[in-house]
């Protein structure tokens, strides 16, 4: 286990549990890769060895080393009673009575009000999923794909019909992406095992991707959205500079991997068209093979086998490869614009140790509801109105945009970040 630290009181066994009493300063000193503590509901846990076996991946739990993880723990574990058995062996004590429940400069009032809101939303049943809705969602995805193949099997493979089929397949893939997101968060069924099985079916067999790859990547995004070195979605591999801090840092250090003052232009060439067919595809295959994730690999291969069985008799092997590449490019365009309009124009920075509500709201925005938007980006929900009222009370920005404003803001934010980089590069 990790290092011991200094106790404010002697450690003793209380009801069979370690009874150390710690200050926040002591907890915060245990945040290295080889020594990790965190706090949940004022209880202090040593997760140094457990982090390597954490089902959600080592990185997402390590991001909270030395911090209060109460809100993240609640958000990521629908069945809190089930995970308590994993926590008990890790318990080493609790916070001293003189220590506040929140760490650093987090607002106790915001945290308490958020807890109250969460309890109210839960009591009103707004977190209770309707499995019938998700079954219908899955059914319409299968119907879209079946229709895409039926069109070309019955009426032929003309350019017009092939394009129509490709658009239907891309739409089916995009919708499967939103559906697997909900299964992956274990938010559809009460039994986690059912969510896991349908997650692997949806992301693996229907999309050809990996459930474990998605979990380990996406959980980090939700745990620390738009935080450099913690949210993999803002790791731009030096292709882009984003936010207001990174461009200036790159400019001052004279870092110029790309002509960043033109990134709002070359984004159209390397962002939307290539993310899924190139970057994600390489990542997924490397992840499954390097981790020996044979179940996910089998699910992924079943997707491509099914696709080839449907397409090779019509287009041949080369034509089938071209078709699926085109479908992936179409899907990638939609995916990039929808996901990035929520995050790229928002605050992107290094770790600021904000409370959960403030961190989430500074890193994302809402898109105005409409029947099309609710279907296309799989969003909607009455709880937004309640969250907005809480934000108004505490002066936390709550942004709502039209979809077209969101798209324009992606372009605008890239240009603004590029201009910041150029100014720092030339004059600082």
UniProtKB/TrEMBL annotation:
This is acyl-CoA (8-3)-desaturase. It is found in: Membrane. Belongs to the fatty acid desaturase type 1 family. It is a multi-pass membrane protein. Its EC number is 1.14.19.44. GO terms for biological process: fatty acid biosynthetic process. CDD domains: Delta6-FADS-like. The chain crosses the membrane at residues 266-284, 304-327. InterPro entries: Cyt_B5-like_heme/steroid-bd (IPR001199), Cyt_B5-like_heme/steroid_sf (IPR036400), FA_desaturase_dom (IPR005804), Fatty_acid_desaturase (IPR012171). It catalyses: (8Z,11Z,14Z,17Z)-eicosatetraenoyl-CoA + 2 Fe(II)-[cytochrome b5] + O2 + 2 H(+) = (5Z,8Z,11Z,14Z,17Z)-eicosapentaenoyl-CoA + 2 Fe(III)-[cytochrome b5] + 2 H2O. Keywords: Fatty acid biosynthesis, Fatty acid metabolism, Lipid biosynthesis, Lipid metabolism, Membrane, Oxidoreductase, Transmembrane, Transmembrane helix. It comes from Gasterosteus aculeatus aculeatus. GO terms for cellular component: membrane. SUPFAM superfamilies: Cytochrome b5-like heme/steroid binding domain. GO terms for molecular function: acyl-CoA (8-3)-desaturase activity. Pathway: Lipid metabolism; polyunsaturated fatty acid biosynthesis. Residues 19-96 form the Cytochrome b5 heme-binding domain.
């Amino acid at each position: 286990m990790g290092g011991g630290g200094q106790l404010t009181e002697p450690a003793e066994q209380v009801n069979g549990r370690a009874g150390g009493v710690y200050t926040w300063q002591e907890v915060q000193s245990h945040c290295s890769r080889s020594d990790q503590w965190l706090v949940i509901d004022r209880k202090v846990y040593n997760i140094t060895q457990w982090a390597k076996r954490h089902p959600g991946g080592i990185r997402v739990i390590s991001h909270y080393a030395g911090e209060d993880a109460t809100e993240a723990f609640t958000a990521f574990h629908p069945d809190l009673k089930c995970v308590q058995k994993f926590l008990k062996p890790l318990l080493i004590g609790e916070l001293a009575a003189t220590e506040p429940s929140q760490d650093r400069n987090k607002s106790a009032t915001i945290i308490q009000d958020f807890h109250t809101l969460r309890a109210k939303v839960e009591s009103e049943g707004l977190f209770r999923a309707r499995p019938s809705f998700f079954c219908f969602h899955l059914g319409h995805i299968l119907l879209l794909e079946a229709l895409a193949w039926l069109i070309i099997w019955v009426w032929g493979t003309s350019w017009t019909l092939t394009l129509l089929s490709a658009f239907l397949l891309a739409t089916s893939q995009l919708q499967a992406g939103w559906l697997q997101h909900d299964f992956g968060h274990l938010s559809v069924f009460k039994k986690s095992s059912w969510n896991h099985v349908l997650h692997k079916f949806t992301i693996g067999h229907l999309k050809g991707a990996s459930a474990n790859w998605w979990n380990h990547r996406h959980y980090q995004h939700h745990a620390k959205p738009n935080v450099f070195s913690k949210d993999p979605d803002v790791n731009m591999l030096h292709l882009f500079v984003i936010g207001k801090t990174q461009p200036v840092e790159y400019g001052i250090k004279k870092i110029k991997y790309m002509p960043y003052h033109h990134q709002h232009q070359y984004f159209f060439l390397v962002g939307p068209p290539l993310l899924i067919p190139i970057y994600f595809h390489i990542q997924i295959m490397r992840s499954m093979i390097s981790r020996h994730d044979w179940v996910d690999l089998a699910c992924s291969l079943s997707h491509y086998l099914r696709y080839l069985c449907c397409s090779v008799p019509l287009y041949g092997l080369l034509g089938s490869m071209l078709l699926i590449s085109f479908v992936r490019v179409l899907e990638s365009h939609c995916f990039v614009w929808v996901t990035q309009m929520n995050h790229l124009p928002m605050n992107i920075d290094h770790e600021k140790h904000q409370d959960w509500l403030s961190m989430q709201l500074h890193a994302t925005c809402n898109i105005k509801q409409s029947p099309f938007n609710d279907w296309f980006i799989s969003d909607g929900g009455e709880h937004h109105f309640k969250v907005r009222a809480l934000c108004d009370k505490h002066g936390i920005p709550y942004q709502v945009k039209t979809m077209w404003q969101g798209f324009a803001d992606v372009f605008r934010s890239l240009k603004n970040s590029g201009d910041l980089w150029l100014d720092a590069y030339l004059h600082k």
